[in-house]
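User: quick one, fold this
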Amino acid sequence: MSDILSKISCPSEISALSPQEMNLLASELRENIIQNVSINGGHLASNLGVVELTIAMLSVFSPPDDQIVFDVGHQCYSYKILTGRFNQFCTLRQKDGMAGFPKREESEYDCFGTGHSSTSISAALGLLRAKKILKQEGRVIAVIGDGALSGGMVYEALNDTGHLGENLIVVINDNQMSIDQNVGAISKHLDRLRFSSGYLTVKNRTEIILKHIPLIGSLIARVLIFIKDSIRLIIHRRRTVFFEGLGFRYYGPIDGHNLPLLIKKFQSLKRITEPVIIHVCTQKGKGYEFAEQKAAQYHSVAPFDIETGFDASTGNSFTETFGRTMLSLAQKSNNLIAVCAGMMSSIGLEPFKNSFPERFVDVGIAEEHAVTMAAGMAVNGLVPVVALYSTFLQRSYDQILHDVCLQNLHVIFAIDRAGIVGPDGPTHQGLYDISMLMAMPNMNILAPRDYRELEFMLEYAVLNMTGPVAIRYPRASECLLMGNEYLSELKMQYIIRGNDVAILSVGAMADESTKAAKLLEEMGISCELVDVRVIRPLDENELISICKNKKLVITCEDAVKHCGFSAQVALLLDSKGLSVPVISVGTQDHPVPAAKRAELFISEEMNADSIVRIVIKELKGAT
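Assistant:
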């Protein structure tokens, strides 16, 4: 059996391969990706879909002089392997291993770090303009999925590029999906373009048949070709006018798994000196039957058995609890509306959509639009729940502040994957939502420690609260150490009473905080452990009562340590003249890398043993 992949040390070697060898290379790449993702987890279906596309680009273009920017980066595995990282791919998404997304620090071939959607064309245009100003050689290519075309930033970049006629190449990787099925007018436009391509295929087959009819077959075929070409020109111009109206030459759609055709097209595009869009149709999950059949389920996977496939059933979770509670609340409140941004199933809202389709809105990958649209809904009397991952909530900062908080509108934000997420690395850690939201007027921020608290907080927010509400919950299991007390109001809960040290635990930090408090008790240090529950507004009187006679206050939050809940506590105590020291436990002031959640809790000094060491060190220093 051939082994081409391991012999590719740099992308310049790909162009020397024969067509047969390139096809073998594609097969080996798929096998290698499936093997390693089955062990480490990762983005599978999207990466399997762009194998031929990546080979074709690297056989024509010459990175790093030619720069390729992958939108989001869900499809960069083949590119990483073929740019000198074959031997490192087994460390994918592991501690100190290869990143799951493009990362500039990792390789000169990763020209721009990505992780969020709809940024590639803007970044590529910036790279291109810098090349021109600095008189550097090389082309710039942006590879963007059809799902990312729902993001408004794309059209700002297309407008800018086309206006000045920049010679940027934009590759639309059209697999008809983002994570879930695509939504929106742009998706429908691409559907029409794909349909026209299929229509032409049928016509081509008809011509072949006609040409085999004796005497009159060729004449009929020539007449049909003339008619077909005339119709094609009219239809094609109407359907590509959108892109061409922005100043781009449009090519496609073409088969994204036909290597000779892709190479031929890219060789032609390389010589064009104006903005170009090439529309490439690929199959998400290609080459692995399970992923082909259930592409959404195989978008991002945990480790799995290759023979039996990935088991998506995870049992109970904060995400599943959120979705179940939304179903229940929809029956109690006719005004409840669920809003998401292209991630219906992974955010837990698929059952809601199936049961209440008229009260479910998926705007596609357009978080800014989702938030301002929800604000409009709230003005007219609805209660929108906007469900986003914490890392994607960042994209709508201005809309949350300007359109929701300043107007004090009752929009509820369900913030999934808050805190340390793990193997996806710095671009996906949900560490900044507390800091981002703490400064916003009228905002209420809640943090449940377990599933029952999430149920209660969501129901309370929908039925009893007014103004903006954010509920943050982790990609982690619930705390099981505190019992199942059900509270009927939003107040701090005292878990352990004590006199020496106050430990203020926020949401998902309950497990480590409880373990630390018990270890300290065994050492003779009396701890008062409090589940904060409400991060904002602070219960100032209760906090002062808890902290005023303590030797030390420890705040524990699954977020950045320097400008979140702890900073507000320290500011409050200082304003009241209390000199008790406040020590923050949270992530350090740096991008938090990829690793397992438990590993990062240790390295960021957020686990129980670290909390104990911090307390002992501070108490010794005080004496």
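User: anything notable?
Assistant: The radius of gyration is 27 Å.
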